[in-house]
Specification:
single chain, 142 residues, alpha+beta, Alpha-Beta Plaits, five-stranded antiparallel sheet, At4g02000-like, DUF4283 domain-containing protein, DUF4283
């Protein structure tokens, strides 16, 4: 039994010419509908650019009403590892002696939205600067 193979048993290596660019590929034919597809599918245009976002106009009146809704809110940012929602809410209620109530909304990353029921609680939390909650700095922003 012969274990060695001759060079003729292998296909030839492809050699590239320096400076030659690879052949251009027709991506529409690769990802578009087949030529035998109905005309409605042939009207499909592929683009890597998203369509323009729909612009929703706001009047000054609507903006001022929205500002009133968010006037008792602060944005909180936890530096370091993200705290668990329940643990942070408990720490806020325990640390702050509140006259009213708060609602906590968890946003992306380490951000939280805190909504106060009374302006005195908001001013107390805002005026004291950075808080240390659960052993980590918690920064507030209006």
């Amino acid at each position: 039994m012969e274990s060695s193979s001759a060079l003729e048993d292998f296909p030839p290596l492809v050699t590239s010419v320096r400076g030659a660019s690879p052949p251009q590929r027709n991506w529409l034919s690769a990802f578009g509908p087949p030529e035998s597809a109905p005309a409605s599918l042939n009207d499909l245009h592929l683009s890597n650019f998203p369509s323009e976002p729909e612009i929703i106009p706001f009047s000054g009146d609507k903006l001022s009403k929205g500002a009133d809704d968010w006037s008792l809110c602060l944005m909180g940012y936890s530096i370091g590892r993200r705290p668990f929602y329940e643990a942070l809410l408990g720490a806020l209620k325990k640390t702050w002696s509140l006259k009213g109530s708060i609602k906590l909304l968890s946003l992306s990353e380490e951000f939280f939205l805190i909504r106060f029921s009374c302006s005195e609680d908001l001013e107390m939390a805002w005026s004291r600067g950075v808080w240390f909650l659960l052993g980590k700095p918690f920064v507030l922003q209006k």
